[in-house]
Design goal:
- The complex is a heterodimer of chains A (about 325) and B (about 400).
- Chain A has about 325 residues and is an alpha/beta fold.
- Chain A has helices at about 40-50, 70-75, 95-105, 110-120, 135-150, 165-180, 195-200, 220-225, 240-250, 270-285, 300-310, and strands spanning about 1-15, 15-25, 30-35, 55-60, 65, 80, 155-160, 185-190, 205-210, 210-215, 230-235, 260, 265-270, 290-295.
- In chain A, the strands form three sheets. A six-stranded mixed β-sheet of chain A has the order 6-7-8-3-9-10, sandwiched between helices. In chain A, strands 2-1-4-5 form a four-stranded antiparallel β-sheet.
- In chain A, helix 3 (about 95-105) runs parallel beside helix 5.
- By secondary structure, chain B is of the alpha/beta class.
- Chain B has two domains: about 5-45 and about 195-395, no CATH class; about 55-155, abc type-2 transporter like fold, CATH 3.40.1710.
- Chain B has helices at about 1-15, 20-50, 65-80, 90-100, 110-120, 135-150, 175-180, 200-230, 230-235, 245-275, 280-305, 310-325, 340-345, 350-360, 365-395; strands at about 55-60, 85, 105-110, 120-130, 155-160, 190.
- In chain B, strand 1, helix 3 (about 65-80) and strand 2 (about 85) form a beta-alpha-beta unit.
- In chain B, helix 2 runs antiparallel to helix 8, helix 2 packs across helix 10 and helix 8 (about 200-230) runs antiparallel to helix 14.
- Chain B is elongated.
- The chains are: A alpha/beta (about 325), B alpha/beta (about 400).
- The interface between A and B is medium-sized, with 35 and 27 residues.
């Protein structure tokens, strides 16, 4: 059963097409990762899914409820964790959670019980009475998540929920999300951290320039680059003659598998051990001074780089 | 009920903000004390300022005792340092003013004494050159005070008719005077005999209160815009909160804060400085509510249009000062020309201040109802436009 269905979603702001016909669906209980660099159209897509503004064309359905026509009805099923801390800093964690619970029409014992449960989930029961502005970045992020799950949404949409926090809080958040998903909550997770998406999400969609350029499981996405490993040469300084180096390398590799960024040369190949010696010779002959060589097994980062020609954090 | 909790949350945040609390409550009281005392002294000095003596022409068509008291006792003896009384026939008086030989003149009608004694309406005609300055105001005030002091339930009307020397058509000498003065050039108004003068401290207590309430609205709207700039607004919109509820909650929160502030200021000025806010407590409550509603509506409207806190800080500060100046919080309304006073009534603070002054002068709740209705109507209009703006704004939002 589809929890979310996005069909040919488009959004234009004047002459700027921010989202160009994005389509995908998310099954109930699934955890789905949405990747894309800044300005790719990811947040615009999420804002349309959450009913914050209507698309120029296309459709969004959450459990068969048309988000555009019945926005408030659909929003009852959604919890959203914004990228920024969307909390009131001068109110305590408990006051914040109670306020957000009330915004979802929770009241009385139901509200109290829900707040207590959420405080337990996010591990802040003992700091419940402290004001949010006294919390660390990680604790604020946890309250930020807590405010989104008070009403037990069926679909939780998380937009970069771990930006700028310490590893301990990050682990706590990842475990919390994993647990919520295990308990049946559908998750849509966006992040710049590939390892988080790899860890949490069964399926991944990659958005770039307003288009969904890849969609599938991690294994399926790896296969799109032929399950190639990434060979990274770090050079002493920025390559002075990049065209010459690329031309030299095309005798051994396809041009699409060669990426030259600043002082890094990245080559994709199915069997790095087989070509490594020849590759070093070619690079050295081209007059390039190499300071290190790394071989990275295929992962989301390499898939993303392969598909878009740039790093996710660009 | 979501709007209610939104309002309560806004209240809680303001109450916990010590800086805001000081600005909203202590500052107004402190400034009213300082400014009230300062302006009070200025007004005292004003009373000592000598006015150049001027001639007042009188055509007394009434042979009764009250017109004699007015001319001989009040103008001639009582105001002998300020006014030199000159008696003329009506036609001669008109000619003198037309030729600018006199600046101000009055025609006391034949039924003046009889009308005042019987409690019916009468009018003293005030003739002036086009720009008579303070002289006309002095004469007008004296006649009003005289009518009031007779302590009869009478409405004294007056007619002001400037005589334009350059325009012969204004006064047609060939026609009877009664016909020409049937066409009032400026205005005719009635003053209640129960009207009480408003003191300088009273004036500035009301003026400062109105100004600080405006500032509170600006502060509230600044917080609203700041919220809109952050993801907290987006999160609010993904909850069960509708646009109408959002606007209602913001409006309610702002109104509760403003009303609490108004209550403290009014009570504070009454207890600390013995300011008389008038005898109609219900009128005072009603007008305060209407003003707060109107001002908050205007604020919410601004908040729905302006997206950046920085822009609003500039616009809000500039707007408050302009509105305060036009509304009479800086310069007393008495110095404003009539057309400015009329325009000022379109401003929430201008209308409120004028109504507060009316209440202080003894106006009843019935007399201020039009102002209350106008204020509420404008507030509703502002809210409606704000709601439409918010709904339309959603379509133009960008991630």
């Amino acid at each position: 059963m589809n929890m979310l269905k996005v069909a040919d979603l488009q959004k234009s702001f004047g002459n700027i097409a921010a989202v160009k016909g994005v389509s995908f669906s998310v099954e109930k209980g699934e955890s789905f990762g949405l990747l894309g660099p800044n300005g790719a159209g990811k947040s615009t897509t999420i804002n349309m899914i959450t009913g914050l503004f209507p698309p120029t064309s296309g459709a969004v359905h959450i459990k068969d409820i048309d988000v555009i026509k019945n926005t408030k009805q659909a929003q009852k099923l959604i919890g959203i964790v914004p990228q920024e801390i969307a909390l009131y800093q001068t109110m305590s964690a408990r006051e914040n959670l109670k306020f957000w619970g009330r915004m979802y029409d929770l009241s009385g014992n139901m509200l109290e019980k829900s707040v207590d449960e959420v405080l337990e989930i996010i591990g802040l029961t003992e700091r419940a009475k402290d004001k949010v502005d006294t919390f660390s970045g990680g604790m604020k992020r946890r309250v930020n998540i807590g405010a989104a799950i008070l009403h037990k949404p069926e679909l939780l949409i998380m937009d970069e929920p771990t930006v700028g926090i310490d590893p301990q809080s990050r682990n706590h958040i990842l475990e919390t999300v994993k647990r919520l998903n295990t308990e049946g909550m559908t998750i849509i997770y966006t992040s710049h951290y590939m390892e988080e998406v790899e860890y949490l999400c069964k399926r991944i969609g990659i958005i770039d320039h307003g288009e969904l350029i890849a969609l599938g499981t991690l294994q399926e996405l790896r296969e799109t680059i032929g399950d190639h490993s990434k060979i990274v040469f770090t050079m002493e300084q920025k390559e002075l003659n990049p065209k010459h180096l690329t031309k030299t390398l095309t005798s051994l590799f396809l041009e699409k598998d060669i990426h030259l960024n600043d002082n890094q040369l990245i080559i994709f190949h199915k069997d790095p051990q087989l070509v490594l010696t020849d590759l070093i010779q070619l690079v050295t002959k081209a007059g390039t001074k190499v300071t290190s060589v790394d071989i990275i097994e295929p992962n989301l980062e390499s898939v993303f780089l392969h598909l878009t020609g740039r790093s996710l954090r660009d | 009920m979501t709007f209610w909790w939104l309002a309560i949350k806004d209240m809680l945040i303001i109450v916990r903000d010590k800086k805001a609390f000081l600005t909203l409550v202590l500052m107004p009281l402190l400034l009213i004390a300082i400014l009230g005392a300062a302006f009070g002294d200025i007004m005292k000095q004003d009373e000592d300022v000598s006015i150049e003596k001027f001639s007042l022409g009188v055509a007394n068509l009434d042979k009764g005792p009250l017109s004699t008291v007015l001319t001989n006792e009040v103008f001639s003896k009582g105001l002998s340092k300020q006014i030199k009384l000159e008696t003329y026939q009506e036609e001669r008086l008109r000619e003198k003013i037309k030729n600018h030989q006199l600046s101000v003149g009055i025609i006391i009608p034949p039924n003046f004494t009889a009308s005042l004694m019987s409690g019916s309406e009468t009018s003293v005609r005030l003739l002036t050159v086009p720009d008579p300055g303070i002289k006309a105001t002095i004469v007008q005030t004296v006649i009003e005070q005289f009518s009031n002091s007779i302590s009869i339930e009478v409405l004294a009307s007056r007619l002001t008719e400037p005589v334009n020397a350059g325009n012969q058509a204004t006064i047609d000498q060939s026609k009877p005077t009664s016909e020409s003065i049937k066409q009032p050039v400026l205005k005719e108004k009635t003053i209640s005999a129960k009207t009480k003068p408003v003191g300088s401290f009273q004036y500035y207590a009301a003026a400062m209160s109105v100004m600080f309430l405006l500032m509170t609205v600006v502060q509230g709207v600044t917080a609203m815009i700041l919220e809109k700039e952050q993801d907290v607004y987006k999160r609010l919109l993904t909850t069960n909160l509708t646009y109408t509820n959002y606007l209602s909650g913001k409006m309610l929160g702002l109104m509760m804060i403003s009303l609490a502030q108004a209550f403290i200021i009014i009570l504070g000025t009454k207890l600390l400085f013995d300011v008389d806010w008038g005898s109609s407590i219900y009128g005072l409550i009603l007008m305060t509510f209407a003003f707060v509603f109107n001002a908050c509506g205007l604020g919410i409207l601004a908040g729905s249009f302006i997206k950046s806190e920085k822009v609003f800080n500039v616009a809000g500060s500039f707007g408050t000062q302009i509105m305060s100046a036009l509304g009479g919080s800086m310069v007393p309304l008495y110095f404003f020309p009539d057309w400015v006073l009329w325009v000022t009534k379109l401003l929430p603070n201008g209308l409120a201040l004028q109504t507060y002054l009316d209440l202080m002068s003894g106006a009843t709740i019935a007399e201020i109802l039009p102002a209350v209705a106008g204020s509420m109507g404008l507030g509703l209009l502002f809210c409606a436009v704000g709601l439409i703006r918010l709904s339309l704004g959603r379509r133009k939002s960008y991630a």
